[in-house]
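Hi Y.,

Following your request, here is the sequence exactly as I used it, all 131 residues.
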Amino acid sequence: VQLQAFGGGLVQSGGSLRLSCTISGFNLDVYAIGWFRRAPGKEREGVSCINSNGGSTYYSDSVKGRFTISRDDAENTVYLQMNSLKPEDTAVYYCALYMAAYYSDNYFFSRCVTSKDFGSWGQGTLVTVSS
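Below is the corresponding structure, written out as tokens. Let me know if you'd prefer a different format.
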């Protein structure tokens, strides 16, 4: 089982990037996935998560309305479209697999906030937003 994040780079404030998380070693379609980030000197933060059928999504308040998570199970890939980027979005972005039972959307979202019960962390991709 391997997750790998791609698509980071340097972008000016107000710009856009699309991150991709490719999954190998298993079929994605029964799993929920999360995107997380760690900025320099800060704790890891849950950015966005999506359940196994794509019908439920979570966004942190800091990215709501600017980022969109989606999944293409045929391609075994989860995307994070990031628009209106701000310097405070600068971080290493990671994707991870939700490893626990899915009791409810709210339970899953609470796990997304804390990254608890997420695993198979891929190597991150650096996003740098210049002002």
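Residues 105-114 form the longest helix (10 residues).

Thanks again,
Q.
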